[in-house]
Amino acid sequence: MRRRLFISLGAAGMCSALAGCGNDEQEGFNLRDVPSGPIVLGFSQVGSESGWREANTASIKKAAERNRITLKFDNADGDQKKQIAAIQSYIAAKVNVIAFSPVVETGWDAVLRQARDAGIPVVLTDRLIETADESLYVSSIGAEFASEGNLAALYLENDYEDTSGHINVVELLGTRGSSPTKLRTEGFRETAARHGKLRVMDSETGNWTVAGGEAAMKKLLRRVKKIDAVFAQNDDMGLGAVKALQAAGKKPGTDVRIVTVDATRAGLTALAAGKLNYVVECSPEIGEQLMAVVVDLFFGGQVQKRVESQKAVFDSDSAADALPDRTY
């Protein structure tokens, strides 16, 4: 039986995709007053668009409770304006630390300057932002999205190593403008271009949902005559692709191979059943890592600029092994 395989990007030989992801320590963030009373964290979640996101929210709420941190929580429902308003409310409430998973990469400088001017450190979770001033946030916690794309292409390419000719691949993308969408795409295409065996024929946005993935896959089936494989940027969109392929009379996992990212219980169940071929893990359970950073910041300690979450790659056998203990 195959074992669960934990992989670092170095093992895959693709360090260039993770430039800037070192463990540089930040100087202790000086709060205006001597810390006293409860630690208060303001957290803005990007939404509740998937099982992964719901597990991420649950992890943060449980970890806050376990660590006796007062949590002010808001759900942005995928709306950047709503998320900015939540951050501004945390600033007005004078919380100790602000954390958020950004809806998109750009457009955060103004509100994060307000937080900095108020003496409140900001932590990014799951996703990243695009800014020329990285002092606007003190730490980011989550997966390395480019390496997830690298690994998806690597495993798919290896799956076809005994097949001659080119392999036609289509992509199901997450929300446009978000860092996981951008970086998973870049990572996948970078690795696919190394040997040229995998050819990305087309892509369509599925917005991280099963329904979105199904609709996107139907569009791609109409546009692309021959599809050998699908790279779905999360499990939910991959499960949507399964539905669309079955409706088109194709056998997912066999007629069309599918690789996804997340490793939720639903994704691993489909993988164990042979409907998916590989799943790259992107763990949502970062709550304890976030609370450790929050506590360090509250007491003026040093924190790492980048805190990476655990990842693995699953095939059908290792998925079956992992399912009994899967918590999300």
TrEMBL record:
The keyword Magnesium does not apply. Keywords: Signal, Sugar transport, Transport. Residues 43-298 form the Periplasmic binding protein domain. One of its GO terms (cellular component) is cell envelope. Gene3D superfamilies: 3.40.50.2300. Pfam families: Peripla_BP_4 (PF13407). It comes from the Bacteria. It is found in: Cell envelope. CDD domains: PBP1_galactofuranose_YtfQ-like. The keyword Kinase does not apply. PANTHER family: D-ALLOSE-BINDING PERIPLASMIC PROTEIN-RELATED (PTHR46847), GALACTOFURANOSE-BINDING PROTEIN YTFQ (PTHR46847:SF3). This is Simple sugar transport system substrate-binding protein. It comes from Actinoplanes campanulatus. The lineage of its organism: Bacteria, Bacillati, Actinomycetota, Actinomycetes, Micromonosporales.
